[in-house]
Amino acid sequence: MTEAAILHWAALTHSGSRKPRNDDSLIAFASGPDGAEILAETGSHPLASHDLVFAVSDGMGGGNAGDIASSTILQQMTEIIPETFKAAASGFFPDSLSHLGDAIRSVHEKINAAAHGCADKSGMAATLALAWFTPENLYLTNIGDSRIYRSREGVLEQLSRDHSYAWAQWKRGEITELQYRSHPRRAALYEVVGGGHARVNPHFAAIAYEPGDRFLVCSDGLIDGLSERHLSNALAADGKDPASIAVTLLKRAIDNSGIDDTSLIVIAISALSGAVDHD
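Structure (tokenized):
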């Protein structure tokens, strides 16, 4: 018997100034026995009967390939993640992180197949940052430089890992955040979904969450205009709901940069609601 949290969220996206089309995609959906229910960009939902999934994907490639890649990834997640409920109904309980890995490998192959021999989809690829909340844990995965952060009691922590050598240098203390932000190879990613790569190696993690935690799922366009101090202050602000935090972050990111597509989802864990029996 466990208690189920209530999640409150707000999602925003903005097309960058370099091109008219937004290659970012984002999604919020409830995952349950009947499949996926796409949720509004702002709302709240208990975890009593459904898992909740929030994801951002930043597409890349020539022509219209970028937005196709990012939207394909998220659509596939809505089809594959709810399969855990169907499996449980049959008495089989798949490991959530293994299930996520299978889902990502499947869409990786699908995007590569779609791009093969198709000039306007050459180089089609995308990043992914996905947060999957169940009554027990948060399961997360990321590929590329879309990120997931947690703010707990005023302390900001990046839960995802950027798949770039410049980011690794920063996190090892070899360069400062300022040097990282101006690094010429900052956007050079060695892991993406698709892109013609033979394999994809996502980062996975399973963590516990608590009432009062706030999470941020975002594309790198947000990071272009905001330092970690900006993120930390906004997510830790007292009395702010996810919608007001998201507006604050997006506006400041656009004012400071605004060149790249910018997408974000802010999620807050509220006080616990009734009991849920998982026996």
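The CA atoms of residues 150 and 215 lie 5 Å apart. The chain has one domain: 2-276.
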